Amino acid sequence: MFDFWIDGQSGAARSGSLTLPHGTVETPVFMPVGTQATVRTLSPHDLKSIGAQIVLANTYHLHVRPGEDVIAQLGGLHKFMAWERPLLTDSGGFQVFSLEGFRKVDEDGVEFQSHVDGGRRKLTPEKAIEIQATLGSDIAMAFDHVIPGGADEATARDALERTLRWLARCKKRHASLMGTQTLWPIIQGGTLPALRTECLDRVMELGPWTGIAIGGLSVGEPKDKMYATIDVLESRLPPTLPRYLMGVGFPQDLVAAVERGIDLFDCVAPTRGGRNGSAYTPEGTVNIRNAAYRTDDRPLDESCDCETCTTYSRGYLRHLFAAGELLGLRLLSLHNVRYLIRLAAEMRGAIQRGGDAFGNWAEDWRRRYQHTGVA
Amino acid sequence: MFDFWIDGQSGAARSGSLTLPHGTVETPVFMPVGTQATVRTLSPHDLKSIGAQIVLANTYHLHVRPGEDVIAQLGGLHKFMAWERPLLTDSGGFQVFSLEGFRKVDEDGVEFQSHVDGGRRKLTPEKAIEIQATLGSDIAMAFDHVIPGGADEATARDALERTLRWLARCKKRHASLMGTQTLWPIIQGGTLPALRTECLDRVMELGPWTGIAIGGLSVGEPKDKMYATIDVLESRLPPTLPRYLMGVGFPQDLVAAVERGIDLFDCVAPTRGGRNGSAYTPEGTVNIRNAAYRTDDRPLDESCDCETCTTYSRGYLRHLFAAGELLGLRLLSLHNVRYLIRLAAEMRGAIQRGGDAFGNWAEDWRRRYQHTGVA
After folding, report:
1. CB of B36 within 8 Å of any CB in chain A?
2. Which residues from chain B sit within 8 angstroms of residue A34, using beta carbons?
3. First to last CA, chain B
4. Which phi and psi (to 5°) does residue A73 adopt?
5. How far apart are CA B243 and CA A201, in angstroms?
């Protein structure tokens, strides 16, 4: 029920095939984020129409609403959200450490206040694993101690040690459940190279693992720090394991990370940006609310095959946003996710041509793509 | 490009086939409302998947935003909203007389304040016809003087006379444009039988027409007054013309009106109700927000073939509403519109069985359907 097979390489970039209980995922792959058991504005039918292979759902959000017990009674997360393809759940660590409100951290876990009903709840490594097992995702993530982007070394060291102790507890609880779900650890350590490599080494000592995630990036640090951190890890990451860069999803970051050997991504940017009128195109990000598009009869992205681009003019999409029509939010979300899925597929094709093919492709892609920083 | 053929009858109920420039519509038919060139939350693909044959769009709304000139530059309303099947546009009369804000009525027309930019604008019979011709709908509606539900006879008489004078001007302007669009008049007269029949007779004198609409009902009057008004008109309406009851769309009203010889309907209720969590079922209206549905694994409506009912549990739909997810609004809107389309198709089938078939069907339907008044 679990397998990862590398079927192409070009420089550090790799393409592969990841077999999970609910199907096989071709990498590099972008995972749309279904925070509350739905990728905002999109149906499973929409997601399949744009080639989504795997969706991420949030343990924290589903735990506080509707509760994993409700989802279990309704047949588990796949059936609940009518998504029969693979699912990855995060552990809730990122949410309990980043959401506003009361939070009390000790060695046992994190006590927090639900943003839904204000009630006090507690997540521990064991509890995070149990919830994810109840949800029934294909890949569960370890519960980690997440620190703010600019934390000092002492704080980072302390969080790292706790993350490693919690990882051992996650692993133990996960093993006792003996399900088909697999558990992936998360490498933390901020942008401090020594901490990152130490974390990786000590995580590997706790293995074996079927995959490995890099957390705590794209949280406000400069882009070059993010890329440098991936570079540091790249040479030490076991080549046979799938590598998941958490929370990263701007087009230029996907390209830079695949260039550095990353296989999986997730990010709310395409759907959040889409709801704000921001759309990815081969020439960069455009904001469809712009008056310049009022009578523009061109599609959003002439090279795109999604329903939005094959059906509507920019003028109509602009009208939907100007008029506050919900269809606009959906059509831009659909396109943006499709854009990242196509980008990943295009990178996969370039990687499989081998040699310098990916590097050449990436150079050409960057020449065309001008990031406007809007998304 | 215009034809109406009655192909079934049972009591006063009729089934027919209405041929328009963009296709043929089987009646009785429910028209979903695409106020701003989109049926709220639904795509044209969704609408086709649930068998929508004809959509209504609002002249007032499209005139103030984005403007008929923008729509014309983008290829006309059909192309703009990517709906290649028939379209009916209302004239804007109902909106300029019912929306809040400044309004000045004289013999020439209605000056009003745009709800979008606050600018003063004016609709006249000629202007309403010109806008609709520019939009390019299959059926245009006459610009009428609409009065509040409880208006006294003098007010109703005055509005009636003006509506008739305006109808003559609409007809003249429409004839001069010589397009493929057809123009339908609107019978007003409140719930006063004498005014209604007089209005009908005098409208017919201004003909010939290809169809006829009944306006000013379902605006707060008691149900029996509404049904009585349709009854009064039914015996005098020319049997060969399609009859459109404007703004009516609750399930029980559709059944009662078809029983009284009505062929076309439109209403925002299924989409507005859907966005509020209210759903039609064969047993009446349910509100999906109800905690009773928390772990309910049944579909919304077991007899329904729409994507919502064939894919999701009530428990999941309730979760989407509880979590404020936009997908919920869309899934309930989709189901509610499908419900009315299926209801119309079911009535059509009963009518075509002839004899007492429709009356028996309606009696049986009413026994099952308990209107809860939520929608």
Report:
1. yes
2. none
3. 37
4. -65, -25
5. 77
pTM beyond 0.95: the answer is yes
Q: What is the DSSP letter of B292?
A: G
- If we measure between CA atoms, which residue out of A29, A22, A27 comes closest to residue A7? A27
Examine the residue annotation and report whether B3 is marked as an active-site residue of this protein. no
Say if B73 is an interface residue toward chain A (CB within 8 Å).
yes
Q: Is residue A69 part of a domain?
A: yes
Q: Sort A164 into a burial class: Cβ within 10 Å, 0-12 / 13-18 / 19+.
A: buried
Out of A46, A90, A253, A263, pick the active-site residue.
A90
Residue A176: φ, ψ to 5°: -70, -20
Instruction: Give pLDDT tens digits for B235-290.
Output: 999 999 999 999 998 999 999 999 999 999 999 999 999 999 999 998 889 999 99
Chain A, chain B: beta-carbon pairs less than 8 Å apart: 119
CA B344 – CA B350 distance, rounded (Å): 10
Considering only residues A174 and A179, tell me which one the structure prediction assigns the higher pLDDT. A174
Question: What letters, b where the CB count within 10 A reaches 16 and e where it falls short, cover B24-60?
Answer: ebbbbbbbbbbbbbbbbbbbbebbebbbbbbbbbbbb
Residue A147 has what pLDDT?
87
- In a 13 Å sphere around the CA of B368, the CA atoms on its Cβ side amount to 11
Helix (H) or strand (E) holding A243: strand A243-245
Rg (C-alpha) for chain B, rounded Å, is: 20
pLDDT average, residue stretch B28-51: 98
**Predicted complex ipTM:** 0.97
Of B70, B320, B326, the CB nearest to A315: B70
| Alpha-carbon span B337 to B329, nearest angstrom | 12
Question: Which of A42, A66, A322 is closest, CB to CB, to B65?
Answer: A322
* Residues 296-325 of chain B whose Cβ lies under 8 A from any Cβ of chain A: 297, 307, 311-313, 315-316, 318-320, 322-323, 325
Rounded to whole angstroms, the Cα distance separating B108 from B110 reads 7
Question: Residue B277: CB partners within 8 Å, gap ≥ 6?
Answer: B287, B288, B289, B321, B328, B332
Q: Which amino acid is it at B233?
A: L
Beta strand spans in chain B (E): 3-10, 13-20, 23-27, 29-31, 33-34, 55-58, 87-90, 103-105, 110-113, 120-123, 139-141, 182-184, 186-187, 212-214, 243-245, 264-266, 278-281, 284-287
Q: Is A355 within the bounds of a domain?
A: no
Residue B347 placed within a domain: no
pLDDT in tens, A208-260: 999 999 999 988 889 999 999 999 999 999 999 999 999 998 999 999 999 99
Contacts of B294 in chain A (CB under 8 A): 66, 70
Cα distance between residue A240 and residue A207, in whole Å: 13
Tell me the helices (H) and strands (E) count for chain A, helix number first.
Answer: 15, 18
Taking the CA of residue B283 and the nearest CA in chain A, the distance in Å comes to 23
Residue A54 and residue A31 in contact, taking contact as beta carbons nearer than 8 Å = yes
Q: Assign residue A20 the CATH number of its domain.
A: 3.20.20.105
**pLDDT tens for residues B182-230?**
999 999 998 899 999 999 999 999 999 999 999 999 888 899 999 999 9
Task: Establish if A339 belongs to a structural domain.
Answer: no
Structure tokens at A243: 């590598």
Query: What range defines the domain where residue B77 resides?
Result: 3-268
Exposure of A203 in the CB half-sphere (CA atoms within 13 A): 31
Nearest Cα neighbor of B57 from B29, B99, B86 is B86
Residue A99: band (very low, low, confident or very high) from pLDDT cuts 50, 70, 90: confident
How many structural domains does chain A have?
A: 1
CB-CB under 8 Å, A311 with B66? no
Give the whole-angstrom CA distance, residue A225 versus residue A189.
12
